[in-house]
Design a protein that fits this description.
heterodimer; A: alpha+beta; Ubiquitin-like (UB roll); DNA polymerase, domain 1; 2 domains; 5 helices; 34% helix; B: alpha+beta; Aldehyde Oxidoreductase, domain 4; Aldehyde Oxidoreductase, domain 3; 4 domains; eight-stranded mixed β-sheet; five-stranded mixed β-sheet; 33 strands
Chain lengths: 156, 772
């Protein structure tokens, strides 16, 4: 067992964990933050995407030990008192949601993009979201959502 | 305020964007154990012995199950599938034993301690080989299995035979100027829902029953399948279904559920969760049924179709699952949305030592439409008729008889074709930006019936604070049904949309519904909701009349506000029910809709079983760009139109159309389960490619409306048709671009390059071979 201390959605957590525990397992099984999903477990699908120090990371590929001392943001931390943030609101408004299994990852990937690049061109949006698979094929409306969110200008 | 027809936000959206939506694998129960499954490494083998004794002693292990411990079989149409293999294994990946342990890792590790003795048997990997007289039999006892009334061939691998004739085939072919005979192949595809198959089961020792938390699109059918298999009554099997992370027809039978139930029986009281890995989901769950399809079509020189015979050989895999109905009903789509006076089909499904198959967004329609629409293009080019005009010339219209003489109602086929053609600027050619690139356009259309007859029941209750709860077993699988059903409920009753909710399905409390399949939910559940909603409204107004001392006939309700004609608002529903205070009040109504007795189903004598309560028609036109040096086909634009009856929520319809196109492009160009010696080689998303957002073409979704006399608010279905026309439209565009006809899916760059090379060789020999 090893000791880790990390911040998740602005709350500091300290824990004794197995050295092989992934960040995804820690989030889902220790913190009950189930918004990040496991769909492939090996970094091929992106449904487990969370932000680590603001960068999108497949949490199934990161050991929680490697997140030691870092800031993790999950989908549960994005809304403010239950009020959807700009990206979440844009997903709702444009209908960029179907079964919803990849939605948390899509939203976080879009959030990370807009923070780094508030006015992305279409190819930059596609590139930033290409790591998240959506079998429902919500891609066209996801592009609308990112465009809508960017137009609000709050990430400027 | 009317909600029907409006682009209201999905009612599940807020939960889904905040991470609050609970899917199967998000549930953690007190005392829950984790299951893991040991799977067969052989496509076909006798199971001589399974020794689980060492695994039982492993750390953290609470229970181990093998087939002999739980010797039951299940199956929607044929009871042929064991929960865990009993005396033989029939595909690589078949569950042989399972372990329940405190952690997933402990369960996985204990699998290594199970010893299995197999005696390999010759495997049947090819459906044609399965037909051979001397073929090894997968199910020698097929004729003794409990099954439905459909035709089988005893002592063979043929588990389904279906035949249908309407008209005079001889005369139909005789009156043709040309006969076209073509063979097509549609390949196996994984549903690849982002949520893999997941189930949690708990055995209840007190009543020998089970409670399951499952991701399925058909709670009542799964309950029945499980209860029948185990000899239990309906109260002994309770299914709770939350959000389903995609189904596409795939979550229709006991996959993770089978192992979870077998394990639960070993650890009474403790819930056991079995969650398939992506590899298990790809290689050992259920896939689209591959089909070899021969079409023989008679055509007059002016393009009029005179007859078509379709022959299907379905590669069914190791167990019949819910694929029997595909072999019986799927071929109907091979006749397309066309007037063909003489039609016949002959369809057989065989067992093979491969992953089981089943419903896949269209229930055989994607395979049948692939053949139909590819051949229509072949016919058009041979006759030098514009493919668009050939389709319009033969296209079915309102009032035409269908393939069984049933009079078609509520269809608008023509408009779907015309609109996509216009959107893609049919007839014009875009110049490719480089010499090694060629562009082409293709068009395809499709028709699908819906499972008929089926029924839906709903119960609606209004709480004292005016909130409306709709109880119906229609899980939200992603297609937006919870939203459109809520919109219909709000309008039928006259309450705000925000007052309506559809709780997760619990078979212990929800009334019966057919499956969330066959694109039937909006229409069938919608009809029941409309009936029950109007009854709730009537009762609410009657109650208001009594309480207010007004004739109820003078009252109306809109958005929860009760008004008196000529007077104005008098009360709202919440205040009305609130007057009962602690005495309490629930306003309740129920309704049932069944398509069984509809006069619309009338057809020619003996052909009534083919009838459908509605038809879905969709057309697509695509533009592709082909790289003749690499063989790569890129889809640039897809115009996709669907005749939906009436759009309850246009955004939801667009989601289905766009999603269907994305899936169709992915299925056609990227996806293929490659197999060697009965073993699927590409059990990962690295090797089984799904379309990403980078592969997205420009998609123009087009909603076409029509008037169906029995549809709730006019709405038909849309989920399935969205995906079927994409493959043939791409193949037809490829032909338009470079004159190459691919008849077997998928359309890979290797296949295209080979065809280009073969064409070059033919042309070098001066052999003016048209490739069709």
């Amino acid at each position: 067992m090893i000791r880790v201390a990390l911040t998740v959605n602005k709350v500091r957590h300290e824990a004794e964990v197995e050295p092989n525990l992934t960040l995804l397992e820690f989030l889902r099984e220790a913190l009950y933050l189930t918004g990040a999903k496991e769909s492939c477990g090996v970094g091929e699908c992106g449904t487990c995407l969370v932000l680590v120090d603001g960068h999108p990371v497949n949490s199934c590929l990161m050991l929680v030990a490697d997140a030691n001392g870092r800031e993790v943001e999950t989908i549960e931390g994005l809304a403010n008192e239950g009020e959807p943030n700009t990206v979440q609101a844009a997903f709702i408004e444009t209908g960029a949601i179907q079964c919803g299994y990849c939605t948390p990852a899509m939203v976080l990937a879009a959030e990370a993009l807009l923070r780094a690049n508030p006015n992305p061109d279409p190819s930059q949006v596609r590139e930033a979201l290409a790591g998240v698979l959506c079998r429902c094929g919500s891609y066209p409306k996801v592009l609308d959502a990112v465009r809508t969110a960017a137009a609000k200008g709050v990430h400027q | 305020m009317s909600y029907v027809g409006e682009r209201v936000a999905r009612i599940d959206a807020a939960e889904k964007v905040t991470g609050g939506a609970v899917f199967g694998s998000d549930i953690t129960l007190p005392g829950m154990l984790h299951g893991a499954v040991l799977r067969s490494p052989y496509p076909h083998a006798r199971l001589v012995g399974v020794d689980t004794s060492r695994a039982e002693q492993a750390p953290g292990v609470r229970g181990v199950s093998a087939g002999r411990d739980f010797p039951f079989t299940f199956g929607a149409s044929i009871k042929d599938q064991p929960f865990l293999a009993i005396d033989r294994v029939r595909f690589v990946g078949e569950p042989v034993a399972a372990v329940a342990a405190d952690s997933e890792l402990q369960a996985q590790e204990a699998l290594d301690l199970i010893t299995v003795h197999y005696e390999e048997l010759p495997a049947v990997l090819d459906p044609w080989q399965a037909l051979a007289q001397d073929a090894p039999l997968l199910h020698p006892d097929l004729h003794t299995y409990e099954r439905g009334r459909h035709e089988i061939v005893p002592h063979s691998n043929i588990n389904t035979v279906a035949r249908y004739v309407h008209g005079d085939m001889e005369e139909g072919f005789r009156s043709a100027d040309l006969l076209f005979e073509d063979e097509f192949f549609a390949h196996a595809l994984s549903h690849a829902a982002m949520e893999t198959h997941t189930a949690t089961a708990q055995y209840r020792p007190a009543d020998h029953g089970y409670t399951l938390w499952v991701s399925t699109d058909r709670p009542f059918q799964m309950r029945s399948e499980l209860a029948t298999a185990l000899g239990l009554s309906s109260d002994q099997v309770r299914l709770i279904v939350g959000y389903v992370g995609g189904s596409f027809g795939g979550k229709n039978t006991l996959v993770a559920e089978a192992a979870a139930v077998a394990l639960a029986r070993k650890v009474p009281g403790r819930p056991v969760r079995v969650e398939l890995s992506r590899e298990e989901d790809l290689v050992a769950s259920q896939i689209r049924m591959p089909a070899f399809i021969k079409l023989k079509t008679g055509v007059r020189r002016d393009g009029t179709l005179t007859a078509r015979r379709a022959e299907f050989l379905w590669d069914g895999g190791a167990y019949a699952s819910n694929a029997v109905g595909i072999a019986i009903r799927g071929p109907k789509a091979a006749f397309g949305p066309y007037r063909i006076p003489n039609v016949e089909y002959y369809s057989r499904m065989v067992y093979t030592n491969k992953e089981p198959t089943g419903s896949y967004r269209g229930y055989g329609t994607t395979q049948a439409a692939w053949a139909c629409e590819s051949q229509m293009d072949i016919i058009a080019h041979r006759l030098a008729i514009d493919p668009l005009h050939l389709r319009l010339r033969n296209g079915l219209q309102e009032g035409d008889p269908w393939i069984n003489g049933q009079i078609m109602h509520g269809i608008n086929a023509r408009e779907t074709i015309e609109l996509v053609a216009s959107e893609i600027e049919w007839g014009t050619i875009d110049r490719a930006p480089a010499p090694h690139l060629r562009r082409g356009k293709g068009i395809a259309t499709m028709i699908k019936e819906t499972a008929t007859p089926t029924s839906s029941n709903v119960v609606i209750k209004v709480e004292q604070d005016g909130k409306v709860v709709v109880l119906c077993a229609a899980p939200e699988i992603g297609a937006g049904q919870a939203t459109v059903l809520s919109q219909m409920a709000a309008d039928a009753i006259g309450v705000p949309l925000a007052a309506v909710s559809l709780p997760a399905t619990d078979t212990a409390t929800a009334p019966y519904n057919g499956p969330v399949a066959s694109s039937r939910t909006t229409y069938h559940v919608g009809n029941a909701i409309q009936l029950a909603g109007l009854e709730i409204r009537r009762r609410a107004l009657a109650l208001a009349g009594r309480v207010l001392g007004i004739d109820a006939d003078l009252l109306d309700m809109n958005d929860g506000v009760i008004t008196e004609r000529g007077v104005g608002p008098r009360a709202n529903l919440r205040d009305l029910l609130g007057t009962f205070g602690s005495e309490g009040y629930s306003l309740v109504a129920e309704a049932r809709y069944s398509s069984a007795d509809s006069p619309l189903l009338k057809a020619d004598p003996g052909c009534e079983w083919v009838s459908t309560i509605f038809w879905m028609i969709a057309s697509q036109a695509v533009e592709v760009e082909v790289d003749v040096e690499t063989g790569t086909v890129r889809v640039l634009k897809v115009a996709a139109a669907a005749d939906v009856g009436r759009a309850i929520n246009p955004t939801a319809c667009e989601q289905q159309i766009e999603g269907g196109v994305v899936m169709g492009v992915s299925n056609t160009l990227f996806e293929e389960l490659t197999m060697e010696d009965g073993r699927i080689q590409n059990g990962s998303f690295t090797d089984y490619k799904l379309a990403t957002i980078q592969d997205l073409p420009e998609i123009v979704p087009i909603i076409v409306e029509s008037d169906h006399p029995e549809a709730p608010f006019g709405a038909k279905g849309i989920g399935e048709p969205a995906a079927a026309a994409t493959a043939p439209a791409i193949a037809n565009a490829l032909f338009d671009a470079i004159g190459i006809r691919i008849k077997d899916l998928p359309i890979t760059s290797v296949k295209v390059l080979d065809a280009i090379e073969a064409k070059r060789v033919d042309e070098a020999h001066g052999d003016d071979l048209a490739l069709d």
